[in-house]
Write a structure and sequence with these properties.
Length: about 300
């Protein structure tokens, strides 16, 4: 077969993702397109090949016999091309692309990163930062630190550590709250929160109150565009922010922030290191993964 006789590579990419996930929606999320766009590409591919590749049910899809044959071939080809591209783009190099939120980077990862550079000075480290959930394929990221339950479609995950969440504010601001800082008093205080630009699984004040068994909601919410900005606003005395211990523990320890009330919520889920399922890691990525798992274990033992 000549290259011009191949089906559309865009359609093959949509098919491979949909077949791997057995879901047009999850394929669309991975490819950063809409589910109808994935469906159209697959319809075009089926028309081109003159055969059905999926059995479509109401809420799920299954591969036909012909679909299984094509998926095995396309999946192997895509993995081979990805590996070749890595070798060509960086022959002999050790590099890693790691994603995280700005808050995780600033307050947990970066303070420890010097240790990695001292041990592995030849690894070319690239950091991808986003306060929304990072798409590893779209950003060409090897791995990412993500909060949740650890069960993401198409991703392998390794548990790093759990967390606890409690209200914090500046030493000066706590005087405005009075002596008895109960949940009712908190709900009426100036509460700093992150708006829609936040990672999936991130808890806001309403989630925290529900976790404490309360139906209260913030009466004076102040929404900011990132958790790092919200924490800085709390340090500057502008209100109370939800303190994820892994991210504000250092500021509490040195007195820039103080814990408000005795209410502490164990965060549902935990922080995980995620990688693309079934794809090999570069040597640099393997070194970083091993180092990060060691850092996480040390952190767990000291909390």
């Amino acid at each position: 077969m000549q290259p011009r006789d191949l089906p559309s590579l865009t359609a093959l990419a949509a098919f491979e993702a949909a077949a791997r996930h057995l879901s047009f929606k999850h394929a669309a999320d991975e490819l950063n397109v809409t589910a109808p766009a994935v469906s159209r590409q697959i319809r075009a591919l089926e028309t081109d090949l003159q055969t059905a590749l999926f059995v479509r049910a109401h809420r799920q899809v299954e591969l036909t016999t012909e679909g299984h044959v094509l998926f095995d071939s396309v999946n192997r080809a895509f993995k081979s091309m990805a590996e070749s591209a890595r070798e060509i783009s960086s022959p002999g190099a050790q590099q890693v692309r790691v994603g995280s939120t700005n808050a995780m980077a600033s307050n947990w990862l970066i303070p420890r990163l010097g240790d990695f550079w001292r041990h592995y000075p030849d690894v070319n480290f690239h950091h991808v930062v986003s306060d929304q959930t990072i798409n590893l394929i779209a950003t060409r990221t090897d791995m990412a630190i993500r909060f949740g339950m650890g069960n993401w479609a198409g991703l392998d995950s390794q548990f790093l550590f759990s967390d606890r969440i409690y209200p914090v504010c500046s030493p000066g601001f706590v005087k405005n709250l009075g002596v008895d800082v109960n949940l009712e008093a908190l709900a009426g205080a100036s509460l700093l929160d992150v708006g829609d630009v936040r990672e999936e699984g991130w808890l806001g004040w309403s989630d925290w109150f529900r976790g404490e068994g309360s139906t209260l909601t913030p009466r004076k919410p102040r929404y900011l565009n990132s958790y790092v900005v919200a924490v800085q606003a709390a340090i500057d005395g502008l209100g109370v922010v939800l303190g994820w211990h892994s991210l504000v523990g250092a500021a509490v320890a040195d007195g820039r922030l103080v814990a408000v009330s005795g209410h502490v919520l164990e965060a549902p889920g935990g922080f995980h290191l995620v990688t693309r399922q079934g794809e090999p890691l570069s040597n640099g990525a393997k070194l970083f993964m091993d180092w990060l798992m060691g850092q996480a274990e040390t952190y767990r033992l000291t909390q």
